[in-house]
């Protein structure tokens, strides 16, 4: 057959049509997908009815309301609870990742007893009788005060239940980890009166002067603070951030006042001096206050704007302008507590900032700072104390703070047993080597941890605690908020592992101890205890999920006592030698303190913070010398030497090295541990006289190429 | 009979002046959509994050430095002229990715994908991710997986779907009750999580929705560049690489000029021209 042009075109068209209509192409792509998609195990999540349950997150002191979405009763997602008085629908990434904590393989799945260097599984009965036996021996030897307790938060019924146990046992040695709340309580005690706290009405302030407070990165109640910041634009409220690096909060601020690290208190006192010299309000506001003359004389002499400029690096004219801008605002508030306000704080700094609020007449005013009463909604029945308890509990405490306790234990011991609840001092305190050595001096350590963290690893017996998604508990807001809300944390699932509510554990333990201790803990369960002690508010709490105790400014103006500030000693920090000052940096995406980040949280961390196994440190390019971005360098302080990666960053003051906090965990969990360095390992504690706080905000360091 | 139902065009506005970079959107997205995690996620080139928060800086030294956090989900491009030929859809040989003409959402059908990754090459926003490994959850952690989103297998590309399963749930409810979906009924996981309220989500075609009110999208093609449709008439609002004509449905908002300028790589002098004619001119090259 002759192929002419027409039939050639016809053949071409026919072939094209044939290819287009042939199933071969589709078949090939289908085959390719089958061949490429070989999955040995395909998870098929079970489907079912969707329900939503309300609870409260207690991962941090924020006390946010959460909504848990469940499929056939199985929780699949955590979100912020709409219309909740604390977080109003918002959530932070740690809370949203809550289900990863629930199923975390690093959780402690049964009670454990240490045998040599290894833990062995024991039953709950064995564990309770083992601990009760040891404690019984201590009591019989007549030294009940040698039982210590280190716990996290100091509010809510669980804190009171632990204290009740310590009282009934006969020990005054209860300690709480340093936190924003404990620091604010100390400030209130030094300046106003004991048993109070401070709440900052950031929501209603039109001029927020933050002394390094990481309002966005987790200061106070994190979601509430982020929302207060987000509403600033609509409220036309200004945020002025005193800082030495461009934190997320500084970045969001209208103005940054760059100060040398560690001189925040001096700036605050400098502002106080300007107010006293130039405004009538400050002079008048001092009437009736204690020791105001000595304070004002001290300011006049030591804190002239020129002197403040020399100390802080803030120009004298700027100090004066800032003070006047502050006093001229309608509702200004000064916020203390750099970073998250927990470790590395001095009472002098907190008190200086609070003095500024007092002088500006901002106490107990809307948009100012509230000197708050504790939320007195808990009514425990009278404790039962025998003679041993009365004697032991009446003795003096071993130390004034947990940092002092560590110091004392490391040097000369003093505790024969220690309870650790909701705390991870072997990670969260400065100079962790020393904390671990102190732990070794304690004969018998009982941990109530949920996770095999650094401190649990040091313990002799672990009585594993159910986590917040498995337990009932009252959760009180605090954390610098100007309102008090009690939320009810409810069990969303049955305990996944063989864990117990620590309240139930404590009741079992008390009952196993017998005698007067058992009498004071005669409840059938923690649930029964909670229902009894919350009395008046229980019905509302269990129906609505929360009760707003107080959200108005307290009545009257409290008296301010300036005695501490008139004579507050300056501490020579940072210690050691070196061209750089190393400071820890709080990051929103990394949990700090005793809380451990979830795998999701670690995943979101930028590669300018964590790179492989290395922590990345922030350095201003102007001071990095020959070091280039991404170089591995040796960082040396008086406490230790580590390798880090260099992250050149214009957003940090020259001469300062910023190292992220929350990395360098050392337990067995490849998703969250073994990454970077724990900055606390590199910083030595500096105890502030008069407060016992660890005031080491940083340390001198050297940096050289590896 | 085919009813002339109103066509949705779901989109998002992210206020970069409100975003604090907290990362709640990223984690909310991951836990909503069964996104896995690995032991080391610090190499961001192979880390799967449907929603990723980038950090931009003005490059000045402290204390003049400014940072902006830019959350980047899939941009759900409408393609040249907003005709639905988004860059990834046009190149997919397996029809594994598709454009929803009734929603404006770009989908990804995992069982069809055979991992050629043309779409990843075509996406100017790096919004698509390839599964180099089968995801593994530590023992017991698979218990929190949601049945509404398929877990993905090795060898496929995945990306943000604007939480399409949430749309399906809301749509089914609305169909049962014989009504239209309301604005707050369908919201993505990142939007609901954002504690700063920086993300707004809704129907760009619906004048009652907040996204429409903020963006005020221009329904006509840009006279200077006919590829561009739906440009914002709000001078503070911009899209990423807008002049390419991919017509994303994710809009960004900022008061600051340097931030708006960071939405594209402008040649010297070019920005001045674009800026002064904002909303009218956006010719490329």
From TrEMBL, chain A:
InterPro entries linked: Asp_de-COase-like_dom_sf, Molybdopterin-Qrc_component, MoPterin_dinucl-bd_dom, Mopterin_OxRdtase, Mopterin_OxRdtase_4Fe-4S_dom, Prok_Mopterin_Oxidored
SMART domains, A to Z: Molybdop_Fe4S4
UniProtKB keywords: 4Fe-4S, Iron, Iron-sulfur, Metal-binding, Molybdenum, Oxidoreductase, Signal
Source species: Desulfobacter hydrogenophilus
GO MF, one example: molybdopterin cofactor binding
Domain 4Fe-4S Mo/W bis-MGD-type: start-end pairs: 50-106
PROSITE patterns reported in the protein's UniProt record: 4FE4S_MOW_BIS_MGD
Protein name as it appears in the record: Molybdopterin oxidoreductase
Protein family (similarity comment): Belongs to the prokaryotic molybdopterin-containing oxidoreductase family.
Gene3D superfamilies the UniProt entry points to: 2.40.40.20, 3.40.50.740, ADC-like domains, Dimethylsulfoxide Reductase, domain 2, Formate dehydrogenase/DMSO reductase
Automatic annotation (TrEMBL), chain B:
InterPro entries, A to Z: 4Fe4S_Fe-S-bd, 4Fe4S_Fe_S_CS, ET_IronSulfur_Cluster-Binding, Menaquinone_reductase_QrcC
GO MF: 4 iron, 4 sulfur cluster binding; metal ion binding
Keyword terms, alphabetized: 4Fe-4S, Iron, Iron-sulfur, Metal-binding
Boundaries of every 4Fe-4S ferredoxin-type domain copy: 10-40, 104-133
PROSITE patterns: 4FE4S_FER_1 (PS00198), 4FE4S_FER_2 (PS51379)
Source taxon at top rank: Bacteria
PANTHER family the UniProt entry points to: PROTEIN NRFC, PROTEIN NRFC HOMOLOG
Protein name: 4Fe-4S dicluster domain-containing protein
Phylogenetic placement of the source organism: Bacteria, Pseudomonadati, Thermodesulfobacteriota, Desulfobacteria, Desulfobacterales
């Amino acid at each position: 057959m002759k192929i002419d042009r027409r039939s050639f075109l016809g053949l071409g068209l026919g072939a094209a049509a044939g290819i287009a209509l042939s199933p071969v192409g589709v078949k090939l792509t289908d085959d390719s997908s089958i061949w490429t998609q070989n999955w040995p195990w395909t998870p098929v999540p079970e489907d079912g009815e969707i329900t939503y349950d309300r609870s409260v997150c207690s991962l941090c002191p924020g006390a946010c309301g959460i909504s848990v979405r469940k499929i056939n009763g199985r929780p699949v997602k955590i979100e912020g609870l709409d219309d909740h008085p604390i977080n109003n629908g918002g959530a932070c990434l740690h809370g949203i990742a809550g289900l990863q904590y629930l199923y975390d393989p690093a959780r402690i799945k049964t009670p454990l007893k240490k045998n040599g260097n290894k833990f062995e599984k024991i039953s709950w009965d064995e564990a309770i009788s083992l601990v009760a036996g040891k404690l019984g021996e201590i009591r019989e030897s007549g030294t009940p005060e040698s039982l210590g307790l280190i716990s996290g938060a100091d509010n809510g019924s669980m804190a009171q239940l632990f204290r009740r146990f310590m009282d009934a046992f006969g020990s005054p040695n209860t300690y709480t980890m340093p936190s924003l709340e404990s620091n604010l309580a100390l400030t209130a005690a030094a300046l106003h009166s004991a048993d109070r706290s401070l709440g900052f009405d950031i929501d209603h302030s039109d001029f927020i002067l933050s002394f390094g407070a990481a309002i966005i990165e987790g200061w106070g109640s994190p979601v509430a603070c982020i929302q207060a910041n987000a509403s600033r634009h609509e409220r036309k409220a200004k945020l002025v951030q005193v800082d030495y690096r461009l934190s997320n909060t500084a970045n969001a601020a209208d103005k940054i006042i760059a100060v040398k690290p560690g001189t925040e208190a001096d700036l605050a006192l400098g502002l106080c001096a300007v107010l006293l010299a130039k405004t009538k309000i400050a002079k008048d506001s001092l009437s009736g206050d204690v020791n105001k003359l000595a304070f004002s004389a001290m300011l006049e002499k030591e804190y002239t704007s020129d002197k403040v400029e020399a100390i802080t690096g803030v120009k004298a004219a700027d100090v004066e302008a800032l003070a006047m801008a502050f006093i001229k605002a309608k509702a200004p508030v000064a916020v203390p507590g750099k970073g998250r306000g927990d470790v590395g704080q001095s009472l002098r700094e907190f008190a200086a900032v609070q003095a500024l609020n007092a002088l500006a007449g901002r106490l107990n005013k809307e948009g100012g700072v509230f000197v708050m009463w504790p939320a007195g909604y808990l009514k425990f029945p009278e404790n039962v104390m025998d003679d041993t308890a009365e004697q032991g509990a009446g003795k003096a405490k071993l130390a004034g703070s947990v940092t002092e306790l560590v110091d004392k234990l490391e040097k000369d011991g003093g505790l024969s047993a220690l309870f650790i609840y909701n705390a991870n001092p072997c990670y969260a305190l400065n100079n962790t080597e020393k904390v671990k050595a102190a732990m070794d001096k304690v004969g018998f350590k009982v941990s109530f941890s949920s996770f095999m963290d650094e401190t649990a690893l040091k313990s002799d017996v672990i009585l594993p605690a159910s986590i917040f998604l498995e337990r009932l508990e009252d959760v009180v807001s605090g954390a610098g908020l100007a309102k008090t809300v009690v939320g009810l944390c409810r069990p969303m699932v049955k305990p996944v592992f063989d864990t117990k509510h620590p309240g139930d554990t404590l009741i079992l333990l008390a009952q196993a101890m017998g005698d007067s201790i058992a009498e004071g803990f005669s409840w059938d369960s923690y649930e029964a205890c909670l229902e009894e002690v919350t009395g008046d508010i229980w019905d509302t709490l269990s129906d609505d999920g929360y009760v707003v105790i107080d959200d108005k400014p307290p009545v009257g103006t409290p008296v301010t006592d300036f005695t501490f500030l008139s004579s507050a000693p300056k501490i020579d920090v940072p210690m050691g030698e070196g061209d750089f000052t190393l400071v820890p940096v709080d990051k929103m995406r990394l949990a700090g303190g005793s809380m451990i980040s979830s795998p999701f949280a670690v995943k979101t961390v930028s590669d300018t913070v964590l790179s492989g196994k290395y922590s990345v440190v922030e350095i201003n390019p102007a001071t990095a010398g020959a070091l280039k971005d991404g170089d591995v360098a040796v960082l040396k302080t008086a406490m230790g030497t580590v390798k880090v990666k260099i992250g050149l960053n214009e957003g940090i003051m020259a001469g300062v090295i910023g190292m992220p906090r929350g990395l360098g965990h050392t337990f067995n969990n490849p998703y969250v541990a073994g990454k970077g360095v724990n900055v606390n390992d590199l910083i030595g504690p500096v105890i502030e006289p008069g407060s016992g706080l660890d005031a080491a905000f940083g340390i001198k360091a050297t940096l050289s190429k590896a | 009979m085919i009813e002339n139902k109103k066509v949705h065009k779901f989109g998002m506005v992210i206020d970069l002046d409100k975003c604090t970079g907290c990362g709640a959107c990223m984690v909310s997205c991951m836990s909503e959509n069964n996104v896995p995690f690995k032991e080391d996620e610090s190499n961001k080139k192979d880390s799967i994050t449907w929603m990723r928060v980038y950090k931009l800086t003005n490059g000045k030294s402290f204390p003049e430095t400014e940072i902006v956090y830019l959350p980047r989900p899939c941009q759900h491009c409408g393609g040249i002229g907003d005709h639905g030929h988004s860059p990834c859809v046009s190149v997919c040989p397996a029809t594994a990715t598709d454009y929803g003409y009734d929603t404006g959402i770009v989908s990804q059908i995992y069982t069809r994908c055979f991992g050629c990754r043309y779409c990843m090459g075509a996406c100017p926003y790096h919004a698509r991710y390839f599964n180099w490994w089968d995801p593994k959850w530590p023992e017991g952690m698979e218990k929190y997986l949601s049945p509404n989103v398929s877990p993905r297998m090795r060898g496929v590309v995945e990306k943000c779907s604007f939480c399409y399963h949430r749309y399906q749930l809301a749509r089914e409810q609305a169909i049962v009750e014989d009504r239209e979906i309301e604005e707050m009924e369908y919201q993505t996981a990142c939007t609901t999580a954002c504690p700063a309220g920086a993300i707004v989500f809704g129907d760009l075609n619906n004048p009652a929705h907040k996204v429409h009110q903020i963006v005020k999208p221009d329904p006509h093609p840009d006279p200077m560049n006919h590829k561009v449709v739906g440009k914002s008439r709000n001078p503070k609002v911009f899209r990423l690489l807008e002049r390419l004509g991919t017509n994303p449905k994710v809009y960004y908002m900022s008061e600051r000029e340097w931030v708006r300028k960071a939405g594209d790589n402008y040649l010297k002098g070019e920005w001045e021209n674009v800026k002064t004619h904002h909303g009218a001119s956006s010719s490329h090259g």
